[in-house]
Amino acid sequence: MNLLDTPATEAEREAQIARMCTLRNVPTDIVEHLRQTEGRTADHIARAVDWLVSTSKFFPTPAELVQALEKTRPRTSFASKDLQPTKAPKTVHIPSPFGGPGITVTITKDWYDDCTACEDTGWAGYWCGPKESEQYSWLTVRRCGNTREHAEHEYVTKCPCGPTNATIQRRRGAA
Ligand SMILES: [Zn+2]
Ligand SMILES: [Zn+2]
């Protein structure tokens, strides 16, 4: 096991969850939140918390925390499984930023997303609003299910690719 894959200690998990205490509606206990982060690396939890702190007003429910963890799942731990040989080796020239000759590399393996909407996380983020968000410009604009007039917001939804996404299915099988 790689050192980076070591699960976070309870103190580390607590410290990450405590970062969300700046959000509204802090719950009286975080037992369930702690339980949901068990077995995750400190780095992974930190990324999920970063995302939650920057996108939500309210302290997440345990389910929302799990969604954030899914969304920010580290890709590197799947790299050996998900990297697939390219159809034909590709040669890529990388120019030197300092005006030198640069380097030429031959790529024989490449990363493929089976689904570009969720990048194979199973969760896709959207922006519900009249136009693209300036703050979250990477989100696709799509109306949520709420038909009443409401303020624009970000939302995460289970990507419909799940049952047909080979990468997600392979991960489930491995879990
Ligand atoms: Zn998808
Ligand atoms: Zn909406």
Summarize the structure.
With 175 residues, this protein is α+β, with helices and mostly antiparallel strands.
Approximate shape:
globular
Work out the strand percent.
Answer: 15-25%
Main-sheet strand order equals 4-3-5
Number of separate strands: 5
Unreliable stretches: 76-81
| Radius of gyration (Å) | 19 Å
Layout of secondary structure:
Elements: H1 10-18, H2 31-37, H3 42-55, H4 62-71, H5 79-82, E1 84-94, E2 103-110, E3 123-128, E4 140-141, E5 153-158, H6 166-174
Parallel strand pairs: 3-4
Antiparallel strand pairs: 1-2, 3-5
This protein binds zinc ion (2 copies).
The site of one zinc ion has 7 residues, from loops.
Describe this entry's structure for a reader.
This protein has 175 residues and is of the alpha+beta class. Among the domains are: 3-71; 123-174, no CATH class. The protein has six helices and five strands. Helix 3 packs across helix 4. The longest helix has 14 residues, at 42-55. The protein is globular. Mean pLDDT is 82; it is low at 76-81. The structure holds zinc ion (ZN) (2 copies).
